[in-house]
Amino acid sequence: MTRPMQQIRLIGAPTDIGASTRGASMGPEALRVAGLQATLESHGLRVLDHGNLIGPANPWQPPVNGYRHLAEVAAWNRTVHDAVYSALTAGEMPMLLGGDHCLAIGSISAVARHCRQMGHPLRVLWLDAHADFNTHALTPTGNTHGMPVAVLCGHGPPELTGIGGTCPAIQPSAVRQIGIRSVDEGEKHFVRQSGLQVFDMRYIDEMGMKRTMKAALAGIDENTHLHVSFDVDFLDAVIAPGVGTAVKGGPTYREAQLCMEMIADTGRMASLDVMELNPALDVRNGTAEVALELVESLFGKSTLMRR
């Protein structure tokens, strides 16, 4: 069963408040410059751009008690939560344009809240080079863009874990991580201890993207709300240099396309984050254009008409 196509609400979140490198704050405009709205509309989709959210500036301060910019990160994520939850309540599909990946705390907490109210099971596909499962005690940097999955699973300060009204917002069993290839030493043990399901690059190398995606999507039914959190550094650094924390050895362009097309085949995607695009590190907006091509595939673009 295919979910009826909703109107897509674009929500820009122009901040790098949780990142280690400045520049992700320009990500939403880079996606717009690449032609995001017009491209989606060319496929018959209904798209409404709500512009950019407003939040505190990046003070660029050192960590305090293991967190950089905690008050500002919390403020941004509350704002993101409210915007995403508003879209879902209105029956629209929120597409969050980041911004750094700490903003997934607000986005996914809103999705989880909506799913609890509607009685829908939630599956989160976390497409990323990093597990983002650090805590204040494990992080080598204090940057909260390395913590959102842990926070969503209840590990973090109440300013963040309480967003959305329920702690934890999700269980690790709701998450499937794909493309992981950079995990901090202490974080590795915590990922294993928590039972997080991770399809790292070795798994993809051994099993191929098709089997990986079949495993990651197993158990989804017509009631499932599928949320995709797409960190652009999921892609190999050769094809996506415009990110703050590029890591070699990621999925190729074709592997990434297959990943997106198999997600589209489910017909269940109901919310989306596009995160960590950093135009300051890009070449002629090429990474934004690649990201846009992959987003097209998430919404059903394919070479042939498929059954």
From TrEMBL:
Coiled coil: none annotated. One of its GO terms (molecular function) is arginase activity. CDD domains: Arginase (cd09989). Pathway: Nitrogen metabolism; urea cycle; L-ornithine and urea from L-arginine: step 1/1. It catalyses: L-arginine + H2O = urea + L-ornithine. SUPFAM superfamilies: Arginase/deacetylase. Keywords: Arginine metabolism, Hydrolase, Manganese, Metal-binding. Pfam families: Arginase. Its cofactor is Mn(2+). Transmembrane segments: none annotated. PANTHER family: ARGINASE. This is Arginase. It comes from Polaromonas aquatica.
